[in-house]
Design a protein that fits this description.
With 382 residues, the chain is an alpha/beta fold. It has 2 domains: 15-244, Aspartate Aminotransferase, domain 2 (3-Layer(aba) Sandwich); 245-314 and 354-381, Aspartate Aminotransferase, domain 1. It is built from 13 helices and 13 strands. A 7-stranded mixed beta sheet has the order 1-9-8-5-4-2-3, sandwiched between helices. Strands 7-6-11 form a 3-stranded antiparallel beta sheet, with no helix packed on it. Helix 3 runs parallel beside helix 4 (86-93). The chain is globular, with a radius of gyration of 21 Å.
Length: 382
């Protein structure tokens, strides 16, 4: 075993990806093309959905989902603050209003009971995030959405491989979005995917990402649109990745399950709990230090002494970010009455935010490296 620092990011790319990229380069057909089309077909099958529309990153996937939705400026979208900033930013892009609610203390995902309590006459959508690869309670969320006539956008950026009772995320809501960023379970370097089972919505999404063209292309534009296409170099990487996604997810699952057994024996720390019937995608294995005397920063520093790289992630929640403290300069603020996000207090999300960190769960870990991580956790927290 070498003495590398054990990483929390280590994309599984190699010769096959390189060969696919080289084929694109030598063909000179660098724009979105056959590899992206092949990837979309494979991804739709994997995610068990009718349509998978590739785009150039996970944030534009969210933007497309918002643009294709029936939401109007001023409409509220219920979401979680314990996530990457792109979630709430995408809501702002179209003039909608992020309405943050607290998360479940065990799953770290949106708490359905708090969703029900937060709905007002302005609420028009719910944007659950499958945080760290664990699906939100989509059955409960969909029941609420159906009862209240709310649009559902799944932020599945981190959730390749996540399932509920065998059904992959991405088809529970009206529309869903995934990221193909270099850290994710499935990578393209940069890239994104929007999924839906709605034919009309899919056609709108394809048009929106391609300058508002019809499906025939050309120089006729039927709506205002964007250029969110995926370059075929990235499509080629993603297409090859699809051929090994099952193995990549299984490797992450084995690593995460090993850590769960270790953490179960250590007093004072915990992890994200997986409800019965749910399959975790294991994008991130998060350690919960709410009951520990060690802070995440202290633990991360000590773990590094054992060659284990670790890091806190969402210690600053979305509504605590500088960008949310004053939205008066945001272009939609002339037309939309945003709440004072400085007044928000969500105790569970805030506690998890400042009391969690990730440890390496990447597929490239050897058995020996996984054991080093496990023993390091024992040594640091015992």
């Amino acid at each position: 075993m070498d003495d590398r620092m054990i990483p929390f990011v280590d994309p599984e790319v190699g010769q096959k990806e390189a060969e696919a990229v080289w084929e694109v380069v030598t063909s000179k057909n660098l724009v979105e093309g056959k590899y992206t089309r092949s990837f979309e077909a494979k991804f739709a099958k994997y995610a068990q959905v009718k349509h998978a529309i590739a785009c150039n990153n996970g944030t534009t996937a969210l933007h497309l989902a918002m643009e294709a939705s029936p939401l109007k400026p001023g409409d509220e979208v219920i979401t979680t603050p314990f996530t990457f900033i792109a979630t709430s930013n995408s809501i702002l892009f179209t003039g909608a209003v992020p309405k943050f609610i607290d998360v479940d203390t065990n799953t770290w995902n949106l708490d359905p009971e708090k969703i029900e309590e937060a709905i007002t006459e302005r609420t028009k959508a719910i944007m659950p995030v499958h945080i760290f690869g664990l699906a939100a309670d989509m059955k409960a969320i969909n029941d609420i959405a159906e009862d209240r006539d709310l649009f559902v956008i799944e932020d599945a950026a981190q959730a390749h491989g996540a399932r509920i009772d065998g059904q992959h995320v991405g088809g529970f809501g009206d529309v869903a979005t995934f990221s193909l960023y270099v850290t994710k379970n499935l990578v393209a370097g940069e890239g994104g995917v929007v999924t839906t089972n709605n034919d009309e919505l899919a056609e709108t999404l394809v048009s929106l990402k391609n300058h508002g063209r019809t499906l025939k292309g050309g120089y006729k534009h039927v709506r205002v649109g964007y250029n969110f296409r995926l370059a075929d170099v990235s499509g080629a990487i993603a297409d090859v990745q699809m051929d090994k996604i099952e193995d990549l997810v299984k490797a992450r699952a084995a690593n995460a399950e090993y850590y769960r057994k270790i953490v179960d024996e250590i007093e004072g720390i915990d992890y994200q709990h997986v409800p019965s019937g749910f399959t975790h995608g294991n994008y991130i294995f998060g350690i919960d230090t709410r009951q520990s005397s060690l802070t995440p920063a202290e633990a991360v520093a000590k773990l590094k002494e054992f060659r284990v790289l670790a890091r806190p992630i969402y210690a600053t929640l979305s509504y605590q970010q500088e960008s949310f403290k004053d939205l008066s300069n945001w272009r939609w603020s002339q037309f939309v009455n945003y709440p004072d996000y400085n007044q928000i207090q969500l105790p569970i999300a805030e506690a998890i935010g400042i009391n969690h960190f990730e440890v390496p769960v990447v597929p490239s870990l050897t058995v020996e490296e996984r054991e080093v991580v496990g023993q390091a956790l024992i040594d640091v927290f015992s």
